[in-house]
Amino acid sequence: VDVAIQATERAGVKLVIAGQKEEGYKLPDHVEYVGYADVPTRKKLMSNAKASFLPSMYVEPFGGVQIENLLSGTPTITTDWGSFAENNLHGITGYRCRTMGDFVDAVKSIDKIKPHDCRALGENFTLQAVAPMYKKYFRDVMDVYTGKGWYSDGNNINAMSRFYPSI
Fold first, then answer.
1. What mean pLDDT comes out for the span 49-65?
2. For residue 120, what are the CA distances in angstroms to 54, 89, 146?
3. Residue-by-residue DSSP string for the chain
4. pLDDT tens digits for range 138-160
């Protein structure tokens, strides 16, 4: 949260924070804390947000919050490792950052990101989109188990296709 606080302070913009807050943790004047965000509150927050910060300092394995943002049409400002390297298309669905300067530039450039492109990429993560991928994966595993393995007859190569917004 400190990365988002510092970046928005340097960029001169307001930050809204939802979620847990340690008792006694002081927030600067440019930060509004709204507490726990249930599903209706998250929908409202994301529909009005210019972006969502996800500056994970560890190798994020998936980043479900980012996908939730994408499906809401909300651009994401993330670090540049873990799942974000694949799921946050730099300059298209948000910005991947490595330094505080990058985070500040991302805040200042966020209006260039089109919510439609965020939503379009997010559609790759619906149940309808991932079900064929899982079906193919499990068939491939089963082929190894039953002896066909590497030499199996193929199991729908198109199941792994994803849609990317036009650049």
1. 93
2. 19, 12, 38
3. -HHHHHHHHHHT--EEEES---TT----TTEEEEE---HHHHHHHHHH-S-EEE--SS--S--HHHHHHHHTT--EEEESSTTHHHHS-BTTTEEEESSHHHHHHHHHHGGGS-HHHHHHHHGGGSHHHHHHHHHHHHHHHHHHHHT-GGGS----GGGG-------
4. 988 888 888 777 788 777 888 88
Give the pTM. Answer: 0.88
**Token couple for 131:** 């079900």
What lies within 8 Å, CB to CB, of 110 at 6+ separation is: 50, 51, 75, 77, 94, 95
Burial 106-115 (b: 16+ CB within 10 A, else e): bbebbeebee
